[in-house]
Structure formats: structure tokens, C-alpha cells
Amino acid sequence: MNATMLLEVDGLSKRFGGLQAVNQVGFGIEEGQIYGLIGPNGSGKTTVMNLLTGELPADSGTARLAGDNLIGRKPHEINRRRVARTFQLVRVLGGMSVRENVMLGRLYGAEPTGKGAAMQDAEQLIEEVGLGNLAEQPAGQLTYIDQKRLELARALATRPRLLLLDEWLAGLNPTELQVGMQLIESIRDRGVTVLMVEHVMHAIRRLCDRVVVMNAGNRIAEGLPEEVLADPEVVRAYLGEEEAADA
Ligand SMILES: Nc1ncnc2c1ncn2[C@@H]1O[C@H](COP(=O)(O)OP(=O)(O)OP(=O)(O)O)[C@@H](O)[C@H]1O
User: Fold this and answer.
1) Å from CA of 48 to ligand 1 middle
2) Which residues are in the ABC transporter domain (predicted)?
């Protein structure tokens, strides 16, 4: 195994009835980098994330985190192995405060701790994601964007080595987008490896060290962002989507 590889995915597959949503997908993620997972709508990106985090059982394949296969494990076991995620459709505990939501991440994450330390960490993370004045608010009363921020803080509270972001930048206005991109960079700078599913292409160009492209369940390209986005097969996959949308 390459010493710097954090995650090695091989032969990952998932079928939903007649649909091969993920077909023998493989890629590797180096520690300390930001990887993009891109592709047209319905190409299988979220399903890959669901397989990596145990939300869905895989039909076949492996995903080794520092050599330890995640496939076949439950979401909480995977989280304990220092993999955290955010969801495309945000999931926060609406009746609990922002602070309590983040504390739960710390209390039940990879490095469980006492309440005092959890609260201290939560305050810091809440500040970092830009929710500094909302710690007491019930999470359910936050705007959608703030709920995304909260979900990120809670994911970070679990102390991940690998953070999976599912369209975390979607829906942000241009100013929020700048702040969001800086936040992702700062997460990487503190040593967390990031795999992000994203449709915001200039964020992919700016943030990602490498990009994996999927189309119709298949991995069709992998490489540097500029290289991959100029690949005719990738361009064709996205054009196909536009044509389908126009029809
Ligand atoms: N639980 C499920 N049951 C049945 N079909 C599913 C399920 N989850 C996803 N699919 C289908 O699998 C395919 C891949 O979906 P997936 O959500 O992984 O794509 P995606 O690349 O993340 O798309 P998007 O960019 O729109 O979020 C789609 O055709 C989708 O309808």
C-alpha cells in the first residue's frame, strides 16, 4: 500500500433493482488532500458516499481506510474510525440547541470525552463555522444554510480523519461561498482529508487537489481538476445532461 493513501476504494458496486447505481468504482485518496467527486445528476455520487459511511450496504467492493475495510460496517462503527459526513438533505436534531447538537458529535465521536470538554470544543467549532451567536438556538429554527453549518460543526466534533461533504456549498450566495471555501481549506489545513461531492465547478477548481468523475454509475475519469474538466468524455457526460434537461 502507498504510505500516503488514506482511503483506497476498489470494485465498489451497488444496484437498486434494475439500476446499477455504482458499478465497480475504484479510486484512492491521499491523506491531507481535498478530492472532488463530481458527475451529472444521478451518476451515483451520493450512493458512493452512502456506501462509504455504511448508510447503505454495498453489493461488492472494498473501501480501506488506512488498510481497514469500511464496507460491511455500521455507520457508527465507521464514524468511530474517524470518517464523518454531511448530508445533501441536512439532518440536525431540530429540538436540541446548536450547542447540544455539536456536543453530541464530540460525546459520541471517535474520541468520546466528558461534557465539559465537549462543551468547550463545541463552542470553538460553532464559532469556526460562523454560528457564534446562535449556540442557544434550537437547531430546527435555523435557516437551511445555518443548518448546513451546524451539520459541518457536528461532523468535525467527531474528530474525523476523513470528512465527506455532500454538496455542502450548494445554495450559498457568492459571499457565503467564499467563506465556505475558506472554511473547507482551513479544515484541510488542520490535517483532515476531504472528499466533496459538488456541482459548484469553480469551487472544485479552486479547492480540489484531484477529482474523480462519475457517469451512470461508472468512474469515467480521475486526475487534476483542470485536466479532468477538459477531458472530452467528461465534457460529453455533462453535455448529455444539459441536452436531457432541454428535451
Ligand atoms: N435508495 C435508492 N433506491 C433506489 N434508487 C436509488 C436510491 N438512491 C439512489 N437511487 C438512484 O441511483 C442513482 C444514483 O443516485 P445518486 O443519488 O447516487 O446520484 P448523484 O450522482 O448523487 O446525483 P445528484 O447529483 O443528483 O445528487 C439515481 O438514478 C437514483 O435515482
Assistant:
1) 10
2) 7-241
Q: Which residues line ligand 1 (CB under 6 A)?
A: 16, 19, 21, 39, 41-47, 88
- CA 156, CA 11: separation in Å to the nearest integer? 29
Task: Say if 172 falls within a structural domain.
Answer: no
Dist. CA 53–CA 197, nearest whole Å: 14
ipTM score of complex:
0.97
Residue 235 DSSP label: H
Range of the domain at 98: 91-160
Q: Quote the ligand 1 centre to 199 CA distance (angstroms).
A: 15
State the average pLDDT over residues 117-143: 91
d(CA 145, CA 129): 11
Same domain flag for 56 and 121: no
Please tell me whether residues 96 and 46 are part of one structural domain.
no
- 45-83: per-residue pLDDT in tens? 999 999 999 999 999 999 999 999 999 999 999 999 999
Residues 71 and 107 in one domain: no
Which of ligand 1's atoms lies nearest the C-alpha of 17?
A: 4
Whether residue 77 is found in the same domain as residue 98: no
User: Mutate which of 12, 19, 51, 86 to test ligand 1's pocket (most atoms within 8 Å of Cβ)?
Assistant: 19
| Domain assignment of residue 126, yes or no | yes
96 and 213: one domain?
no
What integer is the mean pLDDT of 181-205? 94
Are 98 and 134 spatial neighbours (Cβ–Cβ below 8 Å)? yes
**Domain identity same for 127 and 151:** yes
Q: Strand (E) positions, 48-192?
A: 60-65, 68-69, 83-85, 162-166
